[in-house]
Write the structure tokens for this entry.
Amino acid sequence: METRSPFKSHGGLSRLQGALRYSASGLRIAWNEESAFRQELFVCAILIPVALFVPLEAVHRLLMIGSLVLVLVIELLNSAVEAVVDRVGVERHEMSKRAKDLGSAAVMIALILALATWVTLLWPLLQRSLR
């Protein structure tokens, strides 16, 4: 006997429409409820245009922008983990703390990766401009 979630669609165009609706809802929730997501999105709104105008090869621009998008993706996943943990219970529990701390660590690693990417790719330009 196959157990199937009642929330799963059966595919086709209705699945795509549902996925787009759920994704838009998730982004609205992140914007309205998650200050870290708003802060990171604000940074992206500044840095993505910078990446587009810096005199670098397209693949380097893609790496710079991709590293920022990765931060947003991991922030969304971290927020999802936190929501599930809070749904299970708000009392202090070691496993809840572990889940939240691991999500936070994932965001931190993504931020470090983004910073390292930007510094690595912009450093030679900065050095040339200072000569």
In short: DSSP finds four helices and no strands in the chain.
